[in-house]
Protein: RNA-binding protein KhpB
Organism: Candidatus Egerieicola pullicola
Amino acid sequence: MAKEITITANSEQEALEQAYRELGVSSQQCDAQVIQPAKKSLFGKIKQQAIVKVTVVREAETVRTAPPVVKQEEAVQNVETPAPVEETEKETVEEEGQSNNAAKLQAAQEYLQAILDKMGVEGVTMTVEEGEESATITLNGEHLGILIGHHGETLDALQHLTTLVCNRLDGKYFRVTLDCGQYRDKRQKALKDLAKRTSIKVARTGRSQMLEPMNPYERRIVHSVVTEMEGVTSKSKGEDPNRRVIILPTNPRPKSAGGYDRRRSGGRNGYDRRGSRRDHPLERVSTEGTMEKILKAERTEEEKKARKYSKIEF
């Protein structure tokens, strides 16, 4: 069973460092999830502590090394001591790890190429940036919209399947991040802009707003931006894949007794004709238009043809 721990601290970084110390592991061996982001007031006072859950996904490898050579007393300085034993075992383990990573990357690229061939996508090149226990594969070429899909859904699915293919080779987890024509950076920027605009509107109007469904990574981006904004907070609601972020005002606008409410409800003083109070529903905000403008030029008739590939086996 994987080890996990939940830490509460004044900041996310402080909570992560404390969790790593208590578990005795490094950040590369863990998956971290921010359950509750930290919040500060305008003057830097802690308004809300951060809550972070850290799960160990890979145990540290134990490598035997040669025992240290003990220095001899001055009285026996002339006695020859044996040379220290070379750490051949450690080098062997490192070489095996590099070999396994290379095999996983090769399997990932072969799988992606097979998918591209079946989809009829040509002229796509792959660029690989390899890390110690992870790698980023970037696809470059023309007509990449078919590989990205609506708000990156197709790209996320390909990334998940590619990671599964890599980790079938052995039990060590290897993370694969799949990008397509710098889409990840563009999407991240669009989400940050959306979170800022929506937060400003919520703080000004005092009305909560609900964003479109997002994956956990995108929700974390929105939560991190809202944490830095004054007068608003955020929470997630629903179940994946329809889980959404709601941005709420810290000082909600009081319900008016007439005017706007009266016109919308058709009654007097904010009540409808049956005498029931009508509350304002959450306004929904979509990123439609932000990323669509970026990808609109890349969408061609090939996307329609590719819809028949609704199921791809690996």
Observations:
- Residues 4-56 form one domain.
- Residues 88-119 form the longest helix (32 residues).
- DSSP finds nine helices and twelve strands in the chain.
